[in-house]
Amino acid sequence: MNWLDEVKWDAQGLVPAIAQEVGSNDVLMFAFMNREALARTAELGEAVYFSRSRQRLWHKGEESGHVQKVRELRLDCDNDVVLLKVEQLGHQPGIACHTGRHSCFFRLFKDGAWQTVEPVLKDPGSIYK
């Protein structure tokens, strides 16, 4: 059996993918992968996702330079979620979020509201064209 056949793809042919930083164990981002994205990720050793909004493969860092070097690929117990253990390259400390922050999970629910708890490390206007 091909290793890609073991993944439980959803009706759209996608699987959720979580990027976690090696060392800190910070969850950097969540995205989706299709079969081709997962195969390319394994082949390149860099994260490639499927952009649902653009309907195409998206090599993380293709515009920003904030590439994710994949150190491990893991599949959960139900075969329906992929975990990428990554080294976040580019700006230091690593920026994974398109908002210019380290992580996409920068808002904390506290006192009945979502509060921003992580700073912008680099202005997104200077990152993206």
Describe the protein.
It contains two helices and eight strands; from the N terminus they run ββαββββββα. The protein has one domain: Roll (Ubiquitin-like (UB roll)). It has a four-stranded mixed β-sheet with strand order 2-1-6-5, with helices on one face. A two-stranded antiparallel sheet has the order 3-4. The protein is mainly beta and 129 residues long.
Keywords summarizing the entry:
about 130 residues, Ubiquitin-like (UB roll), 4-stranded mixed β-sheet, about 10% helix, two-stranded antiparallel ribbon, mainly beta, single chain
Largest sheet: 4 strands, mixed
Classify the fold: give the CATH topology: Ubiquitin-like (UB roll)
Runs with pLDDT <50, length 5+?
A: none
Tell me the Rg in angstroms: 15 Å
CATH superfamily descriptor: Phosphoribosyl-AMP cyclohydrolase
- The whole-number mean of residue pLDDT values reads 93
CATH architecture: Roll
The main sheet orders its strands as 2-1-6-5
What's the number of structural domains?
Answer: 1
How big a fraction of the residues is strand?
35-45%
* N-C termini distance: 42 Å
What letter string, H or E per element, gives the SSE order?
Answer: EEHEEEEEEH
Q: How many extended strands? A: 8
Give the overall form: globular
Based on helices, strands and strand pairing, what is the structural class? mainly beta
Helical residues, percent = 10-25%
- Number of helical segments? 2
CATH class: Alpha Beta
